[in-house]
Write a structure and sequence with these properties.
mainly alpha; 190 residues; 2 strands; Arp2/3 complex 21 kDa subunit ARPC3
Length: 190
């Protein structure tokens, strides 16, 4: 029983560490007139999915969002509160949860390779997040889907760089400290 409790403690610690990483990556932002700032938080979401997997990655993001909902300043630029979930960024916040899930699902679907990890960060960390974020941003701002999607293309170069960084960092962490990946490290070591 104490072994199971120790495993739970380690898993909760991993979730808390990645939640803190997502929060820290949001402290430096570049505000834009679109209402959605450029931030490093999506890098944290990608890393949570690739390292923690399809169950714990989304739980990490949900922890950050719950902290934001209760008013803690954990979102981009130190914002928080329930109003964060009614503005132009609301869909992207929800998209982070689904994005972390898909990223983790792809990254943990087999042996961790550069192409699987890269695919995971692009499909989950960019594609899924945009798929949810763009329509919500369009609706909140009263704009058409096409113009909003076109405006969102300005984020794509930075997001591709974040996907590359997440891929490199996840693979380096996998080589340097496999226990960070929890059960995935044990499964692929066997």
């Amino acid at each position: 029983m104490s072994e199971r409790r120790g495993d739970l403690g380690r898993e909760l610690a991993r979730i808390a560490i990645f939640a803190a990483l997502i929060i820290v990556l949001g402290m430096v932002t570049v505000p834009l007139p679109t209402g959605v700032p450029i931030t490093g938080q999506t890098l944290g979401v990608m890393l949570a999915g690739t390292v923690l997997g399809p169950r714990r990655g989304p739980l990490t993001v949900l922890l950050v969002l719950v902290l934001a909902a209760i008013g803690l300043p954990v979102l981009a630029g130190g914002h928080g509160g329930i109003a964060s979930f009614t503005g132009p960024s609301a869909g992207y916040l929800v998209g982070w949860v689904a994005g972390a899930f898909v990223t983790g699902l792809i990254a943990h679907s087999g042996r961790m390779t550069w192409w699987r990890t890269g695919l995971a960060t692009v499909v989950g960390g960019i594609g899924v997040v945009y798929l949810i974020g763009i329509p919500v941003q369009a609706a909140v701002m009263g704009l058409g889907l096409g113009p909003t999607a076109l405006a969102s293309l300005g984020f794509l170069p930075g997001d591709v760089l974040k996907a590359i960084a997440a891929t490199v960092l996840a693979l380096a962490l996998r080589r340097a400290y496999p226990p960070a990946f929890g059960a995935m490290a044990r499964a692929h070591a066997a």
